[in-house]
């Protein structure tokens, strides 16, 4: 009974201690654990009584301490994610070992504080090292305006030893310092000119706040002499000019060449076109530009790219009609080393990868083969590609703008164009107005082209006569703006000196349109018809209008010179 009372008394005593207590017999079997230690182990006392201490608390040193008969303190022990200081004591009576006691004190929070203090001290040393090694003069003061830190740059500037300044009011060192006002008002003083010693310096004084209470302040010199400000301004201006130049060069080489400002005209169709460009620029969806040859489809694609968020990334143009089918796939998607005979050593990156984050313009999409249409559709759906000859899938972020002068619905009906690709491309559709539908812009376009070729040909052409302008405005322009530009370039070359463009330097088909060998309805000129006789007639009139120049005729028709020669052979022209 007395023994039981003694154990309960001992347990009650131990339970009033904040630390964990564990008592064992000479064999190391657990006799008692207090509530704190039960909480440490997450067990009940009844579950561990009689068990060997090593099985309950692995790596515990209490048995070793009892065997040695010498206490051991300040041992660090980690249990259940927390840190403890363990003290071990043997229990003896008249040199006889009765057992042992282990006391565990949770020092997790204490250790954290010590670690944080070490980190703070490290940061303080780093900060002091930084302050001493930067060019700017810096002073740090406490809330009373007394100097806490004073770096070497400021000390050299004032010819004062840092140790002589520490702990003193800042006004003792810098008589007219505004730091005291900044500390009192809590308002920064930035860029003010202040007399420091024998110099006028540009100074920044800042309050340091914690929970909206000013606890310290920092003052630093931006410029030790006002002449430094002027030198820096001049240098910055020079660098800004240089940066602008290189940005423009980069934009010119890999970005779009034209902006919405390059679209000439104020007519209703042109203003509507500009609105469509702005709308398309806000989106990342695919765009299909449709219209006759020479209406400016590529210019619109450039303008969309330039007005979009992708403007600082590449704009890559590909003419689907000008590249043979067996080459087009490798041009678009690239190829791995050794993909085919004659392939470039090391492989080649494709146009889609080159345009990552930018825009790819697929011109003359209507001439793309059915096989390539399937490849393009998959890319548009998955936004990923594989180079020829490799199995690696590459993610690419590009916007696709396509253009055609053909009737894609007719090509779909004749199984020459995929219907699913058509609907994938024409998320946003832009119809280009032919020049005859905005003839009121001919005057402005003509004067623009006169200025352009006057500069390029080093001429000083004054303008165009009213009679010649009237003829231009009366003509139907089957080749649209491209044809008008060619006519003005030709006229400038023929004029060859100062003066005005007159009817004498205009093509005969504009001056006397009734004399032309072939007269066709205007809408037959752009090769939108599939019937052979119309195509043949279109080619004949284009060659006639270009005085037999087949290169110019191909440009007028919106096809390549190779394609024109193939059609000439086909129709026996």
Commentary on this structure:
Helix 12 packs across helix 13, helix 19 crosses helix 21 and helix 23 crosses helix 24. This protein is an alpha/beta fold and 573 residues long. Helix content is 44%, strand content 21%. A hairpin with a 2-residue loop joins strand 4 and strand 5. The strands form 6 sheets. A 5-stranded antiparallel beta sheet has the order 2-1-5-4-3, sandwiched between helices. It has 4 domains: 105 residues, Beta-Lactamase; 113 residues, 2-Layer Sandwich (Beta-Lactamase), CATH 3.30.450; 172 residues, P-loop containing nucleotide triphosphate hydrolases (Rossmann fold), CATH 3.40.50; 130 residues, Helicase, Ruva Protein, domain 3.
Strand order of the largest sheet: 2-1-5-4-3
Overall number of structural domains? 4
Beginning-to-end CA distance, first to last residue? 129 Å
Write the CATH architecture name of the largest domain: 3-Layer(aba) Sandwich
DSSP helix count? 25
Mean pLDDT: 83
In percent, how much strand structure appears in the residues? 15-25%
Short recap of the structure:
This protein is α/β, with parallel strands linked by helices and 573 residues long.
Index terms:
573 residues; alpha/beta; Beta-Lactamase; five-stranded antiparallel sheet; 25 helices
SSE order and pairing:
Layout: H1 2-15, E1 20-24, E2 30-33, H2 35-41, H3 45-48, H4 53-56, H5 62-68, E3 72-79, E4 82-93, E5 96-106, H6 108-133, E6 138-142, E7 147-150, H7 152-158, H8 162-165, H9 170-173, H10 179-185, E8 189-196, E9 199-210, E10 213-223, H11 226-254, H12 268-281, E11 287-290, H13 297-307, E12 315-319, H14 325-333, E13 334-335, E14 348-349, H15 351-354, E15 359-363, H16 370-382, E16 384-385, E17 394-395, E18 399-404, H17 408-413, H18 419-425, E19 428-431, H19 442-456, E20 461-464, H20 466-474, H21 480-495, E21 499-501, H22 508-511, H23 532-545, H24 550-557, H25 561-571
């Amino acid at each position: 009974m007395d023994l039981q009372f003694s154990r309960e008394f001992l347990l009650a005593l131990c339970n009033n201690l904040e630390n964990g207590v564990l008592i064992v017999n000479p064999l190391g079997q657990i006799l008692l654990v207090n509530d704190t230690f039960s909480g440490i182990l997450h067990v009940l006392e009844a579950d561990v009584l009689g068990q060997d201490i090593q099985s309950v608390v692995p790596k515990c040193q209490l048995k070793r301490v009892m065997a040695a008969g010498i206490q051991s303190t300040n041992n660090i022990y980690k249990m259940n994610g927390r840190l403890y200081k363990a003290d071990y004591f043997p229990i003896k009576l008249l040199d006889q070992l009765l057992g042992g006691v282990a006391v565990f004190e949770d020092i997790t929070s204490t250790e954290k504080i010590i670690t944080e203090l070490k980190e703070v001290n490290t940061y303080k040393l780093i900060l002091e090292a930084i302050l001493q090694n930067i060019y700017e003069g810096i002073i740090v003061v406490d809330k009373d305006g007394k100097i806490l830190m004073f770096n070497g740059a400021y000390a050299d500037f004032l010819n004062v030893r840092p140790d002589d300044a520490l702990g003193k009011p800042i006004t003792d060192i810098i008589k007219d310092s505004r730091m005291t006002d900044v500390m009192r008002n809590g308002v920064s003083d930035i860029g003010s000119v202040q007399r420091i010693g024998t110099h006028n310096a540009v100074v920044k004084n800042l309050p340091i706040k914690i929970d909206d209470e000013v606890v310290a302040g920092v003052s630093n010199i931006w410029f030790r002499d006002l002449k430094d400000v002027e030198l820096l301004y001049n240098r910055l201006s020079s660098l800004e000019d240089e940066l602008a130049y290189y940005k423009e060069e980069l934009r010119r080489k890999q970005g779009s060449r034209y902006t919405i400002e390059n679209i000439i005209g104020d007519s209703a169709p042109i203003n509507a076109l500009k609105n469509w460009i702005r709308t398309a620029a806000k989106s990342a969806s695919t765009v299909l530009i449709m219209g006759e040859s020479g209406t400016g489809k590529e210019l619109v694609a450039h303008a969309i790219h330039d007005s979009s968020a992708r403007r600082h990334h590449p704009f890559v143009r590909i003419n689907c009609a000008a590249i043979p089918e067996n080459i087009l796939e490798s041009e678009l998607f690239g190829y791995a080393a050794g993909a085919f005979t004659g392939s470039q050593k090391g492989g080649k990156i494709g146009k889609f990868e080159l345009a990552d984050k930018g825009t790819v313009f697929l011109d003359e999409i209507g001439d793309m083969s059915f096989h390539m249409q399937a490849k393009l559709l998959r890319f548009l759906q998955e936004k990923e590609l594989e180079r020829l000859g490799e199995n690696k899938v590459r993610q690419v972020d590009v916007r696709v703008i396509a253009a055609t002068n053909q009737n894609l619905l007719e090509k779909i009906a004749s199984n020459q164009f995929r219907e699913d690709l058509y609907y994938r491309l024409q998320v946003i559709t832009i119809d280009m107005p032919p020049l005859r539908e905005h003839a009121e812009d001919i005057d402005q376009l003509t004067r623009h082209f006169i200025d352009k070729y006057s500069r390029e040909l080093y001429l000083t052409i004054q303008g165009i006569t009213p009679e010649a302008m009237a003829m231009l405005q009366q003509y139907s322009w089957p080749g649209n703006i491209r044809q008008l530009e060619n006519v003005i370039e030709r006229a400038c070359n023929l004029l060859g000196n100062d003066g005005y463009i007159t009817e004498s330097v205009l093509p005969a088909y504009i001056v006397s349109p009734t004399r032309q060998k072939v007269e066709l309805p205007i809408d037959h000129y752009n090769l939108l018809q599939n019937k052979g006789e119309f195509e043949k007639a279109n080619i004949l009139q284009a060659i006639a209008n270009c005085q037999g120049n087949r290169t110019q005729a191909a440009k007028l028709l919106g096809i390549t010179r190779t394609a024109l020669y193939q059609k000439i052979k086909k129709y026996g022209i």
